[in-house]
């Protein structure tokens, strides 16, 4: 008789387990009353609030969390992560969407460091609030030291180093030294070349030629006088006739893609030519 009694006990336990499972509210049902705050462009804080709400509602399924985050995005925000929304992954949808939003709207550590270096003082905050702001922007002294170092370098050197990933700031400084030395050598070479090759004398014919167009290589851009001031546009013919046409880039050009050291060298050449021309044109 013990065997039938054991079977009845197991049947009773199974029935009780089934009742308990039916009494447990599924995550999808508990999530009906959940309304996430509309996404704002401070994704770290926003996700902290969202995940706290997920915890209070016992929401743990990946698909449910993904769906609720998508429903909280406005049109402009959704466009920034449309590749994830249009082609969501088969698994870990929520994690992939979260990373995409953090990448699109979160600040990199370099941006945080720059903001920290440009703080506008206490303002209307309490000193403790200012300290919290500083701690939120940077908790790594090394990255802040790197940002401070880069901010004090010349712009052309800083632009070269900005894309380099040096974990050791000493190696970053050594790389800056190499760029600095190369930069200085290039400027000295240009100045030396200008000293050893004085400009040819300007003839009246070359200056007065009305429609002179210098010969240039195929594909090279012609000198646009529309972006040049009146003074330099009249001077252009003299510079071309003096064999400086290839290097002629007046300082008043609106756009330039040349490095700063090359612009400096060209300005030195132009200044020397202007001085020599003024000396030749001076009345005797």
UniProtKB/TrEMBL annotation:
InterPro entries: DUF7041. It comes from the Eukaryota. Residues 36-117 form the DUF7041 domain. This is Transposon ty3-g Gag-Pol polyprotein. It comes from Plakobranchus ocellatus.
């Amino acid at each position: 008789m013990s065997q039938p009694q054991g079977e009845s006990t197991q049947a009773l336990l199974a029935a009780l387990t089934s009742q308990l499972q039916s009494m447990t509210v599924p995550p999808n049902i508990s999530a009906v009353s959940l309304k996430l705050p509309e996404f704002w462009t401070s994704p770290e804080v926003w996700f902290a609030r969202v995940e706290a709400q997920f915890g209070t509602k016992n929401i743990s399924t990946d698909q449910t969390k993904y769906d609720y985050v998508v429903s909280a995005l406005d049109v402009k925000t959704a466009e920034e992560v449309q590749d994830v929304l249009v082609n969501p992954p088969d698994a870990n949808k929520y994690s992939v969407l979260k990373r995409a939003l953090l990448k699109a709207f979160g600040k990199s550590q370099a941006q945080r460091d720059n903001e920290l270096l440009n703080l506008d003082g206490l303002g209307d905050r309490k000193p403790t609030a200012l300290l919290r702001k500083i701690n939120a922007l940077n908790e790594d002294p090394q990255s802040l030291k790197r940002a401070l170092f880069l901010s004090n370098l010349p712009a052309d050197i800083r632009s070269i180093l900005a894309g380099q990933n040096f974990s050791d700031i000493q190696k970053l400084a050594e790389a800056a030294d190499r760029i600095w030395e190369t930069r200085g050598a290039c400027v000295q070479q240009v100045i030396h070349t200008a000293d050893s090759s004085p400009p040819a004398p300007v003839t009246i014919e070359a200056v007065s030629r009305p429609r002179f167009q210098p010969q240039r290589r195929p594909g090279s851009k012609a000198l646009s006088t529309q972006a040049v001031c009146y003074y330099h546009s009249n001077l252009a013919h003299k510079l071309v006739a003096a064999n400086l046409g290839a290097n002629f880039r007046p300082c008043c050009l609106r756009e330039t893609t040349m490095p700063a050291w090359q612009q400096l060298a060209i300005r030195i050449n132009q200044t020397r030519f202007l001085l020599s021309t003024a000396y030749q044109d001076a009345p005797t």
